[in-house]
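Design request, tokens follow.
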């Protein structure tokens, strides 16, 4: 839009494209996401009135002029008086465009849409078609203003996300709450968070429990109750009690900071259709100008009764019709709308190119733990042979597993309790892919999988494949002492995810480092036919490469550090952003903030709907413009048809593009 563009310059980092409506530039949020540009100004009726005021003045003057021309008999509204009247009507909407055209020419961008509109409307004045000259610029300006409103609406969900990080927090110093800048808070400080306040930094909950609204991160507004010791993230809103949180992450490294960075950079990665249209506009616009000159001048060589003003009028009509605004605006807006709709649902796309890619996915390969299951292990069963002291064995296992950061170790610790300080283990050794080994009172202790016992030739009298849960084998003093079974709960929407993906025609495969019978057990429960277990990270890479060898597109969904290689290898990498590792989140192309697998199908659906809308707009713009261009060149279209072909089609395309914001996925 003409007037609004000036106000949005402070949130753009790139120069304008050949179209005046380059609203596809990235949203930059200097000052930590609080540079709101003009958006807040538009929240009042007064601001909207101010925005439309130039168009209202021009419209009133144009209407009065048309009345004098056609309905009120008089003799004074002719000649210079009439020309001056329409010139005054033209200035409120025309001056900003003339200024922008001049600035574009100074920068070396001669063939901008501003330039086209100036030639067309000044040309109309030159041949005495004053009302049409004013009308073209008036409707063009109204169209651009509505486009700006559409862009603002498309940005709103992303802008809301960017507003979620508070600048200040209250930290406890000598039991007194002191307000400080969030950036200045050190790791280890304790934040006092009152009811209704947003958390500014990631931390660990010190209070016994607290309820948080996590909508800023997940798109889900229902309360999430956290218990003492659990992680809480920046952007979460405290419920109805005062909570204390120990800061564990610096301001710039918080999960929300990383999300904001992803969102800010998302629009810099263009989809192929966007890149094509931008290149197309740069070539197309000068060609159109030269064709318009040809339409005006070439007929004098072939037409017997050549009238310059008639052919100039046709050329001007041709220029107005040819403006590529509908394409240059509606296509990026469609993708921007898709990114906004996704972020509103807790799905972050790192670029519009990934919206395109995910719409064509044929295979979804999922990790098991943390993706289709909760990633929170619990001890299900403890079996210790009668000749061993169960309490002592568990005490030793707990002490040895405390040296590991694996979720299994956490599950054992939660089951057994505090580590006995009297247990002194020696010669502790981690055996990759097998487990842990140590010595206690001169006797060897082995804790791990059954391959660990095989490695040290320790016999056992059970069949490990008959146990469907993850099994931790225990041996002490060279003898099999027993085992623990540990299970991970399947996520409540995992089965629904499989059903939705199948309905989209997507093939599903599960890969996991867990043992094969556990993976197969989970896969059978979910209805996944292809499942593979006992995989190392390099084995997962091999499996993904086998699918890629069939020339099929793949989306890999994972959450761990060991998933980063396959996430990077796949067509679209998807990371679970709540529990996911930073490596997986940084490598991924799409981040699901609430760890819900059902968002995988939603992300694919958003991609498909976005692409459909973009192609609808491309076809609409090309068909209508081609038809009216032919009519204009043949003298069968007037400026009014030209206005429809330019502004009308742009508005239709934009209304179509913003539909995605209202869709339910």
């Amino acid at each position: 839009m003409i007037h609004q563009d000036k106000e949005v310059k402070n949130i753009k980092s790139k120069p304008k494209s050949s179209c005046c409506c380059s609203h596809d530039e990235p949203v930059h949020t200097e000052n930590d996401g609080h540079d709101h540009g003009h958006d807040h100004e538009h929240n009042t009726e007064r601001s909207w009135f101010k925005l439309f005021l130039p168009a209202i003045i021009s419209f009133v003057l144009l209407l009065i002029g048309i009345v004098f021309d056609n309905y009120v008999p008089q003799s004074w509204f002719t000649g210079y008086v009439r020309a001056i009247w329409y010139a005054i009507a033209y200035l409120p909407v025309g001056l900003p465009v003339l200024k922008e055209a001049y600035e574009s020419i100074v920068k070396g961008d001669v063939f901008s849409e501003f330039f086209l509109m100036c030639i067309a409307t000044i040309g109309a004045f030159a041949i005495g078609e004053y009302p049409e000259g004013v009308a073209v610029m008036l409707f063009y300006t109204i169209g651009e203003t509505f486009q700006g409103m559409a862009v603002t609406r498309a940005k709103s969900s992303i802008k809301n996300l960017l507003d979620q990080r508070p600048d200040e927090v209250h930290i406890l110093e000598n039991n007194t709450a002191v307000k400080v800048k969030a950036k200045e808070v050190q790791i280890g400080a304790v934040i006092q968070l009152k009811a209704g306040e947003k958390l500014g930094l990631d931390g660990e909950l010190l209070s016994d429990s607290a309820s948080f609204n996590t909508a800023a991160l997940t798109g889900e507004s229902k309360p999430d109750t956290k218990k003492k010791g659990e992680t809480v993230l920046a952007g979460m809103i405290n419920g109805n009690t005062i909570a204390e949180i120990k800061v564990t992450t610096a301001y710039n490294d918080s999960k929300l900071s990383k999300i904001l960075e992803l969102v800010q950079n998302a629009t810099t990665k263009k989809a192929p259709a966007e890149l094509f249209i931008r290149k197309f506009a740069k070539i197309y616009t000068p060609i159109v100008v030269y064709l318009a000159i040809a339409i005006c001048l070439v007929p004098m060589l072939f037409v017997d009764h050549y009238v310059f003003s008639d052919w100039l009028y046709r050329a001007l009509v041709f220029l107005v019709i040819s403006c590529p605004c509908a394409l240059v605006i509606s296509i990026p807006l469609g993708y921007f709308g898709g990114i906004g709709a996704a972020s509103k649902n807790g799905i972050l796309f790192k670029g519009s190119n990934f919206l395109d890619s995910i719409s064509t996915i044929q295979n979804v390969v999922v990790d098991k733990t943390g993706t289709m299951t909760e990633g929170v292990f619990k001890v299900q069963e403890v079996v210790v042979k009668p000749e061993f002291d169960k309490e002592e064995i568990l005490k030793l296992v707990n002490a040895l597993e405390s040296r590991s950061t694996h979720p299994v170790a956490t599950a054992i610790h939660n089951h057994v309790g505090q580590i006995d300080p009297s247990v002194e283990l020696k010669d502790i050794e981690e055996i990759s892919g097998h487990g842990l080994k140590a010595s206690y009172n001169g006797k060897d202790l082995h804790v791990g999988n059954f391959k660990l016992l095989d490695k040290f030739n320790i016999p056992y009298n059970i069949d490990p494949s008959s146990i469907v849960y993850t099994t931790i084998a225990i041996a002490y003093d060279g003898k099999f002492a027993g085992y623990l079974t540990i299970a991970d709960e399947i996520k409540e929407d995992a089965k629904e995810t499989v059903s939705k993906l199948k309905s989209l025609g997507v093939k599903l495969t599960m890969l996991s480092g867990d043992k094969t019978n556990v993976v197969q057990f989970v896969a059978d429960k979910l209805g996944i036919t292809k499942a593979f277990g006992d995989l190392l990270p390099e084995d997962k890479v091999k499996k993904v490469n086998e699918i890629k060898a069939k020339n099929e597109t793949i989306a890999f969904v994972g959450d761990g550090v060991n998933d980063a290689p396959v996430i990077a290898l796949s067509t679209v990498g998807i990371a679970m952003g709540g529990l996911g590792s930073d490596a997986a989140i940084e490598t991924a192309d799409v981040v699901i903030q609430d760890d819900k697998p059902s968002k995988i199908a939603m992300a694919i659906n958003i991609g498909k709907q976005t692409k459909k809308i973009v192609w609808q707009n491309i076809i609409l713009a090309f068909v209508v413009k081609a038809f009216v261009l032919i009519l204009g060149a043949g003298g069968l279209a007037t400026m009014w048809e030209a206005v429809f072909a330019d502004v009308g089609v742009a508005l239709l395309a934009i209304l179509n593009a913003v539909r995605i914001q209202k869709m339910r996925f």
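Comment from the thread starter after seeing the answer: thanks! The longest strand covers residues 373-384.
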